[in-house]
Write a structure and sequence with these properties.
With about 400 residues, this protein is an alpha/beta fold. Helices cover about 30% and strands about 25% of the residues. β5 (about 110), α6 (about 115-125) and β6 form a beta-alpha-beta unit. The radius of gyration is 24 Å and the shape is globular. Pfam families: Orn_Arg_deC_N (PF02784), Orn_DAP_Arg_deC (PF00278).
Length: about 400
């Protein structure tokens, strides 16, 4: 998408505004499919938590994607978007048995990462197919907040608990049809991922009725020019070959499954915000925008980098700015960033705003959340209306309090 198109969309739909480029989502999906073209049975399950707008889900359904979900609400969104239950996998963490059973009744693939829950579910529903999420104790992700395969992680059943796990399966007679792992996001070293995959293969060999192996995702995307990223082509070549060899050893063709979220939608997203003020202090020039971490929390939460462009003046002379939001506490998007000269009223564009941006937004400071637009076949389509003050108070229940009686003055 070009700067002029983004400016036009902001003029049409207002700011702040999230924009998603459908063509980029499609190209990322095709890139992953092509990388693993040597594998006969490949399933891509989009991770709904990255960006859960129903129109985006429908776009991915059109391409043949399944869904990776972590809550019953995400399952319901998937069903509403037209996905069949068998194309959805549900991988909760720390939820109640009641929610898991409710999802199972919908016919969705259940993925369990807790020995206690596995035993309870297997005892009550031994004929329901279950996938098991293991923790390989391999940390392949970036930031500690998004690395989930290390030994202290709350996710997955430890590979060191395999004897206990096998005993539960044997005692309950439950049907295990898949093995799953997820090492974390922003994977840089393919060899580390392949090492974790070997642990998954060793685990899978102990189960005789598997239908699929789920390798999670976490593929790193570039956040700035010349940034490193996961080489999915090399991964496809190496892991695809090893997976095919395992299937031959196992004696059955299994499905290789991934659950990409960020990889599919991060680069497709643009966040647009207008500059309210340019403020010079003794040491810094602040560009204050009509948004804050209530709309885009990743820089404050993870220290994540979002490339920022001045789409109102893309070829202007670069100066140093600290871009900040309007939330009433530290609210910084970027410190001392080189950006083409900014004036009040200019429109700034944050790149890589497709994944974990709108989905993590809030009404903090009682601010409304922005609209979302899908750029599809050369046209902007509104896929979420901007919230209003009525949306903020919609579910509040107002109490009425009696006015205290006016005290009577006593004359002495």
């Amino acid at each position: 998408m070009e700067a002029k198109q983004l400016v036009q969309l902001a003029e049409q739909f207002g700011s702040p505004l999230y924009v998603y480029d459908a063509a980029k989502i499609q190209s990322q999906y095709n890139k992953l499919e092509k990388a693993f073209s040597r594998v006969e049975h490949l399933r891509i399950n989009y991770a709904v938590k990255a960006l859960s707008n129903i129109s985006v889900l429908k776009l991915l359904k059109q391409m043949g994607s399944g869904l990776d979900t972590v809550s019953i609400q995400e399952v319901q969104l998937g069903l509403l978007a037209g996905f069949s239950p068998e194309k959805i996998i549900y991988t909760p963490n720390g939820v109640s048995m009641e929610e898991i059973e409710e999802v199972a009744l919908l016919g969705v693939q259940i993925n369990i990462d807790n020995l206690s829950i596995l035993e309870q579910f297997g005892a009550k529903h031994p004929t329901t197919p279950v996938c098991i999420r293991i923790n390989p104790h391999v940390m392949a992700g970036g930031n500690s907040n998004i690395s989930v395969g290390h030994i202290d992680s709350k996710f997955g059943i430890s590979i060191h608990q395999m004897p206990h796990l096998l005993r539960i399966v044997q005692n309950t007679g439950m049907h295990i049809n898949g093995i799953h792992m997820h090492t974390g996001s922003d994977i840089l070293d393919i060899e580390v991922f392949l090492y974790a995959a070997e642990i998954l293969f060793e685990t899978a060999a102990q189960f005789k009725e598997l239908e699929f192996l789920d390798f999670g995702s976490g593929f790193k995307v570039p956040y700035k020019k010349d940034d490193i990223q996961t080489d999915v082509e090399e991964l496809g070549k190496k892991l695809g070959k090893r997976f095919n060899a395992f299937c031959a050893e196992y004696g059955r063709d299994l499905t290789l499954t991934f659950e990409p979220g960020k990889f599919l939608v991060s680069e497709a997203g643009f966040f647009l915000a207008k500059v309210n003020v340019v403020k010079q202090t003794t040491s810094t020039v602040f560009a204050g925008i009509d948004s804050g971490f209530n709309h885009l929390i990743r820089p404050m939460l993870y220290g994540s980098h979002h490339h920022i462009e001045n789409v109102s003046n893309p070829k202007g002379k670069e100066r140093f700015y600290s871009v900040v939001g309007y939330i009433c506490e530290t609210d910084t998007f970027a410190n001392n960033r080189r950006i083409p000269e900014i004036k009040e009223g200019d429109l700034l564009c944050f790149r890589n705003a497709g994944a974990y941006c709108f989905s993590m937004s809030s009404n903090y400071n009682s601010r409304v959340r922005p609209a979302e637009v899908l750029w599809y076949e050369g046209k902007g389509h509104l896929i979420r209306e901007r919230e209003t003050f009525e949306d903020i108070i919609r579910n509040q229940v107002v109490m009425e309090f009696e006015t205290p009686a006016t005290p009577v003055a006593v004359t002495v």
